[in-house]
Amino acid sequence: MLKVESLSKSFGGQQILHDISLELQDGETTVILGPSGSGKSTLLRCLNLLETPEAGALTIESDTVRFGGKLTDESVRTMRRHSAMVFQQFNLFPHYTALQNVALAPQLNGKLSKAAAEQQARELLTKVGLEHRMDAYPDHLSGGQQQRVAIARALAISPDYLLFDEPTSALDPELEAEVIRVLVDLARENRSLVVVTHNMAFAQKVADRIVFLAGGRVSYNGTPAGFFSSDDTRIRKFLNVYELIEYKI
Ligand code: ADP
Ligand code: MG
User: Fold this and answer.
1) Pairing mode, if any, of strands 2-11 and 55-60?
2) Edge to edge, what strands does the sheet with 192-196 contain?
3) How far is the CA of 111 from the centre of ligand 1 (A)?
4) What is the pLDDT of residues 97-106, one digit of tens each?
5) Which of the ligands is closest to the CA of residue 43?
6) In a domain, 218, yes or no
7) For residue 246, what pLDDT is reported?
8) Does any domain span residue 99?
9) Full domain range(s) for residue 136
C-alpha cells in the first residue's frame, strides 16, 4: 500500500502541491495525468523523497514518514528502499555497459554479490528484450533500448513501487511502443506502478486508477472509465487536446 496524506510542497514560497491525499493498493497501475505544470513530476519525486514536502505524511507498506521537521538520513533511506524511479531521460551511467548499469545498485546496497547481481541483471535484461545488447554502452543503444535498460535497473532493487516520469516522452512512436510493451507486461504481472504519461491508450486500457492533477490538486481519483467519460469541464478540456473523445481508442 502507498498512502499520501495531506501532502503539501512549495518552491520558493510558491505552493505547488496542495493537500494531496491518495491511497494506492499493491498490484495496481496508477496513471497520473494532468496539464504541464500541474505538479505531476513534483508529486512523483515526493514519493521517492527526491523532493521533501513541507507537510503531510507518506506511508509505503509498513513505513511512514511525517513531513514538517527535518528528516533523518535513516528515514529517507528506509522510504527510498520501497520505490525506484525511471526518468524521461533514462539517466544511465555512460561509462557502464547495460549489464553493469543493471548490476550496480544491488551490489552497492549490499543485497547481492557481484556474481548474483550480474546473473539477476542478465535475467532482467532478457525480460525487457535486451538479451542481445547486454554488453553495449548506452551511447550505442537506441533511446527505447536505453529506457528498457533503465527499467531493468529499477527492477534490480526489487522495489515495492516503480515510479515512471514520462518514460516515453523522449522517444519516437516506434521506440515508445517497445517501452510501453514492457510497461504493459509489468502491469499484467501485477507490479505496483505509478506512471506519469501522456500515452492515453496506456492510461485508458492499462491503468487501474487515474489520478488527474490540476493546479497542484487532485481533481480526479478513480477508474479510467469514469475519467474518460467524465463531464467535468477541466477533464473534458484536457481530453479534447488528445482528441480522444472522437477516436475512442
Ligand atoms: P508537471 O510535471 O506536471 O509538468 P512539475 O511538477 O514539473 O509539473 O512542476 C509544477 C510546478 O512547479 C511548475 O510551475 C514548475 O515550474 C514548478 N517547479 C518544479 N520543480 C521546481 C523547482 N525545483 N524549483 C522551482 N519550481 C519548480
Ligand atoms: Mg513533469
Assistant:
1) antiparallel
2) 83-86, 161-165, 192-196, 29-33, 209-214, 217-222
3) 34
4) 999 999 999 9
5) 1
6) no
7) 53
8) yes
9) 87-158
